[in-house]
Amino acid sequence: MGATAEEAGIAMGGGAAGNVSTSLQSEIGSDLGVTCRANSRRGVTDVSHRSYPTVESVRRALDILNVVNRLRIASLNSIHEELKLPKSTIVRLLETLMTENYVVRDNMCGGYRVTSRVRELSQGYDGIPRVIEVSRPLAISLTRRTKWPSGIGVVDGDKVSIRFWTGTISPWASEPVLGLKSDLQTSSMGRAYLAFCSDEERDSHIDRFRRDPDRGFGPVEERKFRALLMQARIDGYAMREPRTWPYRRTTVAMPIREESVVHGMITLSFFTTAVPEECVHEQIIEPLRSTTRKIDDALAFLSTGAAGLDHQVEDVDPEF
């Protein structure tokens, strides 16, 4: 699943890192720049066409909170030097932040510092959104091209949690799946994860399948399942167990990887009878594969500052 520059849409003239950045930003930006209402569910709100002007006091308060957090102990003068705001404005906003218990004045240290309450601001962020942030605009683009809904998920214990879904912009979406948790053994995302994760992770999950009496996962089932995962590694994608809900749909999943680590999975789901079997590769698998490669490249670029011809997702051995 390693991406070439051409497949990822990356121009390789001049500085590779700069061109990769420009290409990725261009593609992502083209998907994010669609104007919509501030409360629209369709796509992403374009802040350049927002409903109201920026509330300067809120922006300034956030800037001050950011400076205090970064400096650890921030004096009035140091905040003033960084933000160039009037000191009277800084004092008013600091006192507001102190009233709300986000900032405290530490007289012993001679400045302001953040309190433990600022941790509450990050409770909705667990590190996983980085994958969502990178994948989201590319998944939107995928749905715009194919019209079929795409989902992005991450492993959550022995389940897969659906963290993003483009069904709201797909004319052929049916049941909403955002927030649902799918089974690792039967879902396309779970199978894609198990096919490409480390041997230790795979064996650990399969061991739990084996010990779960409700699964009926004996030696015969395990052999068949491992063979299925082996085939998924060869193909580069996995498919959902057809005997599971939603029954009228087929879902294809591919792993989102950085080097050899699986960070998440992306799917494309379609009505089984709407796409002839001989057209699935061209209409579903290849567009999904192209999108996955771009996501892998974007993750690599964010991590290393460089990507392109030298960036290859590590090949996997089809044998476990």
From TrEMBL:
> What keywords tag this UniProt record?
DNA-binding, Transcription, Transcription regulation
| Molecular function GO labels | DNA binding; DNA-binding transcription factor activity
Q: Which Pfam families match?
A: HTH_IclR (PF09339), IclR_C (PF01614)
Q: Is the keyword Transcription regulation assigned to this protein? A: yes
Highest taxon of source: Bacteria
Tell me yes or no: is Transcription among this UniProt entry's keywords: yes
Annotated ranges, domain IclR-ED: 117-301
**What residues does the HTH iclR-type domain cover?**
55-116
Membrane-crossing ranges are none
Under what name is this protein listed? Helix-turn-helix domain-containing protein
Per the UniProt record, the source organism is Microbaculum marinum
